[in-house]
Amino acid sequence: MCDSNITAFPLHRRRKLVQGIARVLESKNGEDANAFWRSTAKTILIQLSESGIAPGLAKQEVGALLHAVLGDIATRSAAKLAE
Fold it and tell me: Fewer CB atoms < 10 Å away: N or C end of the chain?
């Protein structure tokens, strides 16, 4: 199978997706948080692959999503501290 030229709307720009994952991760600790993220990332990678997104691009998208989720968590934590 060859790499595709299909480009998806960037995952890290999907605010509801980013915020939803961030909220779940905030409610978990340690291995539970790791397991949730691994499961979520695997599901998203499968969905992107089935949509025709090249594996390398799919991995980049999931990596950018993780950074956006962690940024959302950090922003929310900073806002709570500022209250």
Answer: C
In total, how many domains does the chain have?
1
pTM, two decimals, is 0.85
- What string of pLDDT tens digits covers the 83 residues of the chain? 455 555 568 999 999 999 999 999 999 999 999 999 999 999 999 999 998 888 999 999 999 999 999 999 999 999 888 88
Residues 58 and 27: their CA atoms lie apart, in Å, by 26
* H/E element, 82: helix 55-82
6 is a domain residue: no
The domain containing residue 61 runs over which residues? 11-82
